[in-house]
Amino acid sequence: MTTQRTALVIGSGFAGLSAASFLAKAGWKVTVLEKNDGPGGRARQLKADGFVFDMGPSFYWMPDVFERYFAQFGKKVSDYYTLDRLDPSYRVYWEEGHTDMAADFETLKKTFEQIEPGSGAQLEKYLQEALVKYEVGMGRFVHKPGLSLTEFMNWETISGALKLQLLTSISKHVAKHFKHPRLRQLMEFPVLFLGALPQDTPALYSLMNYADIKEGTWFPRGGMYAVVEAMYKLALELGVEFKFNESVRAFEVGDNVGDNVGGNVGGGSGAKASITSVVSSSGVYRAHAVISGADYHFTEQELLPAAYRVYSESYWQKRVMAPSCLMYYVGLNKKLKDPVHHSLFFDVSFAKHGQEIYKDPQWPTEPQFYVSVSSATDPSVAPPGCENIVFLIPVASGLTGDDESLRERYFNKIVARLEKHLGEPIRDSIVYKKMYSVADFKDDYNSFKGNAYGLANTLMQTAVFRPACQSKKVCNLFYTGQLTVPGPGVPPSLISGEVVASVCDRAFK
Fold first, then answer.
1. Owning domain of residue 437
2. Are residues 191 and 275 in the same domain?
3. Which CATH number do you get for residue 197?
4. What is the dihedral of CA 238, 380, 427, 89, to 10 degrees?
5. CB burial readout 73-99, b (16+ within 10 A) else e
6. Is residue 95 assigned to a domain?
7. Partner of 382 for a Cys bridge, out of 283, 371, 375, 447, CB 3.0 to 4.6 A?
8. Which helix (H) or strand (E) covers residue 9, if one does?
9. Digits of tens for pLDDT over the chain (509 positions)?
């Protein structure tokens, strides 16, 4: 009789939930260890005084990725939550006036034309090219584990790569189509989620523009946490066991011998050692495989004995990290006059702010910022007659001096700008406020340098150039999430869990 394979998944963020479910579907007995009190990782939910906040991701893009995810388990998105398409997708505030990114494409083309004559046709051409990248990138590249260049050595992949413009920056690519600085900012904005400046991000990621404009911005009723709840429910249906409030403290590693738990792993990793047990705050676990959805740097540098680490501390210090965030969860005791679900405040120069994030890390002088008012779409997330607002300022990872006085200073800055653009006061209507930044990312998620979005998707940190999803020294240790393949963001995290589950399952065949 064949022994059922067992797996421990560390962390219940999107990638961890995905990996756990795919392994359970493949017949594994899966246990998830989560240091916090519920599922979601960075996508946790905050409930306070009748307000409900998504603590992490708030943009629901690439709905096809979510549909595909649930379809692989014989389910549909609609089995778990209801989606509403936002219109406008988001609003961008400039120093003077604002631009709405309409959900209707013809309306959006007219908006572009008003800013720059001829840009409507250019937008059509640009998005036709972006569609090719979306189909090739999402269809052929993101599902590869990135363990070897040989994965890409076939004509279909090579011919596809020629269409992806990996050696051209998205900044140059956008500039060929649009001259007006506002249009350039609108087209470059989505790659900021990937954690690098547009001039350092491959033009491949114009696929994000296709996702933004053609596939649309959606909102799951109840908030993004509705997606977490759906994936958690699915995992439970598949038999996955969850243990919350349980921190992993260490891995015990021994020789890879025999077909005991943690031993006899194939898959060609070449590793001669395996994790024999996982020590947590509540006990000791043994499993055939360990998949870490926790921070990759923390897993290697804190949980693994030094002899079994693949990447040195100097390696990590040289990585280009995506930003961290300075966030505020705010409840108002009134309704805003004209709320828009997503707003971007580009009313100051990004050149300086970008420099202070990526090139000369420091707290920003005058930051651009983002505002989410989810109660504008879903009144259930705030008490009657109230509004919930999330403010987000991207900041460099690894900053020090993250204290309450600094957080208050930035809050006052951005609230004053918000009030100016909205033409109404909000400060006197604040009845709830929670601040969250670099130190909290470190404490809650063991996040390297307090990053919020993981490892930046620069060319030299794409695919095989990212930290590997399987350890080269410990045969039964695997990784998932935004520090490994395919990269940062919610859809890539779902894919990351699927990819690593497949690699893990094949290693034990």
1. 321-445
2. no
3. 1.10.405
4. 70
5. bebebeebbebeebebbbbbbbeeebb
6. no
7. 375
8. strand 6-10
9. 568 999 999 999 999 999 999 999 999 999 999 999 999 999 999 999 999 999 999 999 999 999 999 999 999 999 999 999 999 999 999 999 999 999 999 999 999 999 999 999 999 999 999 999 999 888 878 999 989 877 776 656 566 666 788 889 999 999 999 999 999 999 999 987 677 889 988 899 999 999 999 999 999 999 999 999 999 999 999 999 999 999 999 999 998 654 445 555 554 467 789 999 999 999 999 999 999 999 999 999 999 999 999 999 999 999 999 999 999 999 999 999 999 999 999 999 999 999 999 899 999 999 999 999 999 999 999 999 999 999 999 999 999 999 999 999 999 999 999 999 999 999 999 999 999 999 999 999 999 999 999 999 888 998 999 999 999 999 999 999 999 999 999 999 999 999 999 999 999 98
Asked whether residue 231 falls in the same domain as residue 305, the answer is yes
Q: Which two tokens stand for residue 60?
A: 């629901």
Asked if residue 1 belongs to a domain, the reply is no
Of 445, 462, 487, which one is at a domain's C-terminal end? 445
- Residue 12 belongs to a domain: yes
* Length of the chain measured in residues: 509
